[in-house]
Design goal:
homodimer, alpha/beta, Rossmann fold, Dehydroquinate synthase-like, alpha domain, 2 domains, 6-stranded parallel sheet, 3-stranded mixed sheet, 46% helix, globular, disordered N terminus, ADH_Fe_C (chains A, B), ADH_Fe/GldA (chains A, B), alcohol dehydrogenase (NAD+) activity (chains A, B), metal ion binding (chains A, B)
């Protein structure tokens, strides 16, 4: 009986069935709720020598937000560029710096920014609680010891990084998340006021990350009623935001919730073809995740016909013209590497196409798609 | 600045704005996921003398479920009738018994059943971590010390007790929840297989608890985009379940998720007139919460016209005939007490009708509604 149950668990490991999913245990929502952060952090301060580390998108370096960060004692604010995807070596460097700067283990880490900053904050919190290099933790459930207390404050919505149990990093070998129960934030602050300042293209690309992963999860083979209900709500909200005519503030709030529910929908599902191929694009060319998803997804009629139709309506409505000619000059080696990275994402392909996915995906087909980009 | 912020918080206390909401930190979903419970509890066992206490609806006393409860060492299974609403003195008696039976503080409490059992388990876990009588904790944020680790396994869906931060109890003075951050379950197991065995009337009344609180929260004045998104999804799922033509298993799974999202929608909202009046009905006549809500809601056209129309379609489709003549023989004193209990639920009325609700609700109007029941 026990044997059967363990055997079953092994089979189901990648399929996420029966996963004991870690939800963010604390969330505060509301316009202006960022100012609650001081009160939230206070009881988590171990002592005046154990600082909070604020990792902040350098977009905010000269903005008034900085004056609202509740730093005390020897807290540290580190501005980080989100122009590139977060990297394992960047995580290692941050952890090294923090360990050098302070004798004591910090009280916690606060990430303020979009998906890149949130994933960085999650990864730094994990690595401050563990020994070794971040690249060794890329994968599923490789984290042995608890992370430091960590808080996420999304300032751009769409990635779902605020609720997910992964911190996606580009490493020397692969672009892959630190997927673990210790990765999930201990606290999230959802303040839609931040969304007012997001540049339009970034707003669109990041929002499309949510839309696309809803399409992938709702059409995936892993889906169950739990994830479906979250995915459907996120999908509906994305349509309201990107195809409806909502007042600006309503659209901001609904996009923030779309991202939240979209992230939750991954609890018992997975993303699919667009994300797998976008990972290849990011790893080889350093293209940001949101844009990468859009670049791939536009050519995925064969996999997601209805989703692609809606996506093109959204592009048109918001006058977004995607860049072209990105892959034409790639060497054969680079193209091979991209396909290799994409095809290494087994769970994503299995979710998209079922257990026999390897029979259904041709290397040439993927190369053709990449070359259209 | 600090003063202003505190003053603002006082004003907002009942309105839940900026509440740092405690989400259930762990959830497992899936048919058969109940069998994960052994693995979930194992690392939470403090030692072999610190038992788990299983509070189980006595409906299961002679069912095979009992053989699947993962009890070990000196764990205790206590069967509890859910025929009556849970009471503060019942909580006190359970806590007293557990303290007498064991020298050590238990490892935790597991509630298996519908809303009554879940609320009992939450209240027992709170009181095992605190001193005094349960009635002294009825209210908002009166719990000073952490509760014991506690797990909820809903076997009927609709109340939202599996995600809420309250444990509703009838006390000597009032029917009111222990609303606190310590009340929320540490772990929930969502296994839709349980829903196959729920008697039809109970299925309907409990499902309507969800439907009705969605109507109340979506139409309420406290609502924000966070709660709206959950409430809308729960509302849609309820319509699918009670007015659609879903296969039985799909309907079970969707109702389980409706209850979950419906409970979450209360994070930044409140229930309203039906729940306030239903509390009066329960307290004076001991009528179960789900049925009480239905009895009241059918007569609330003046407050929730669209919701009441849908509700009547649901009654008709499922051939449910609500009992009548329940309040006709009440004494004036009893009727006064009912109205008094209902009107004491300030936040519910304020949510329903706004800050000037006292001008808009007449005692006579409530009596008239009660007398129709």
């Amino acid at each position: 009986m026990k044997e059967l149950s363990n055997a079953k668990k092994r089979v189901l490991k990648n399929k996420t069935e029966f996963r004991n999913f870690p939800m963010v245990p604390r969330v505060v929502y509301g316009r202006g709720s960022f100012d609650q952060l001081a009160d939230i952090l206070l009881p988590k301060r171990k002592n005046s020598d154990a600082p909070f580390i604020f990792l902040v998108d350098d977009f905010f370096q000269d903005k008034t937000l900085v004056t609202r960060i509740p730093w005390l004692f020897n807290d540290q604010i580190i501005f980080v560029s989100a122009n590139e995807e977060p990297k394992t070596e960047q995580v290692d460097a941050l952890v090294h710096k923090i360990r050098q700067d302070f004798d004591e283990q910090p009280s916690g880490v606060v990430g303020i920014g979009g998906g890149s900053l949130l994933d960085l904050a999650k990864a730094v919190a994990v690595m401050l609680g563990n020994q070794g290099r971040a690249e060794n933790f890329q994968g599923w459930d490789l984290v042995g010891r608890p992370s430091l207390y960590h808080v996420g404050v999304p300032t751009i919505s769409g990635t779902g990084a605020e609720v997910s149990r992964t911190a996606v990093l580009s490493g020397p070998q692969k672009k892959l998340g630190i997927n673990s129960d210790y990765t999930t934030f201990d606290q999230v602050v959802l303040d839609p006021d931040f969304l007012g300042s997001v540049p339009k293209q970034q707003w669109f690309y990041t929002g499309m990350d949510c839309f696309i992963h809803c399409v992938e999860s709702l059409q995936g083979t892993y889906l169950n009623a739990f994830s479906q209900s979250y995915g459907e709500k996120a999908f509906d909200l994305c349509q309201d935001v990107f195809l409806g005519d909502l007042p600006k503030k309503d659209a901001e709030e609904k996009l923030m919730m779309a991202s939240w529910h979209g992230g939750m929908s991954i609890a018992y599902s997975q993303v699919g073809v667009a994300h797998a191929m976008s990972y290849g694009l990011s790893h080889v060319l350093g293209i940001k995740h949101g844009l990468g998803n859009c670049l791939v997804f536009q050519h995925l009629n064969a996999f997601y016909p209805d989703g692609v139709t809606l996506f093109k309506q959204m592009l048109k409505k918001h006058l977004i013209v995607l860049p072209t000619g990105i892959c034409v000059q790639l060497s054969d080696d680079q193209l091979d590497e991209m396909v290799h990275i994409a095809l290494a994402m087994d769970p994503l392909w299995e979710n998209a196409l079922g257990p026999k996915w390897k029979e259904r995906v041709k290397v040439e087909e993927l190369k053709e798609i990449y070359l259209k980009i």
